[in-house]
Amino acid sequence: MKIVIQRHGEPDIGEWGKISSSEMTKWINCYNESGVITDNKPCDESLMHAKRSFIVCSTLERSKHSANLLNVEEFVSDPSFCEAELPVMNVPLLKLSPHAWSIIFRIFWFIGLSKDVESKKEISSRVKIACKTLEKLAREHENVLLVGHGIMNRLIAKELLQRGWGGEKTPNGKKYHGYSYWEYRVFIK
Fold it and tell me: Does residue 4 come out as left (phi exceeding 0), alpha (psi in the -120 to 50 range) or beta?
């Protein structure tokens, strides 16, 4: 059995410049509703994995749009694969890029400040559900490809390794990291 975990393509969200922390809620909503830049396409190996696999993705638009760009006729979207949300905190008088705010808020989340979003503990439970779903699909279809998200892909990969899935190496002996846009990791059992 094989599970391929791939990150979505680069979101088509446009330029935002520096914004206040309170404007991050609007940015996050735009990010979650955005498709991906179609000029930046998946590599041939990704298309090959997609052609041979049952495709599953999250319910977020960038994940579904990326699944469409893999040239498959159908896929299933499941909310258990959605990205761990960012907790938006009010930091007065400071303006930063959305990327910088995302890093700051993700650090807050990792240290346990989840405010109005799923906590690390809640995400941990969702990761276990996501892995059970992937394993069930792998038993049914032999090959599964998840079009997921950066943090969730990392957490799912860690859980799959703990469940006895091995990471497949590339021809040059290195493992794909699978954390940048369109990158993937392959797990076999």
Answer: beta
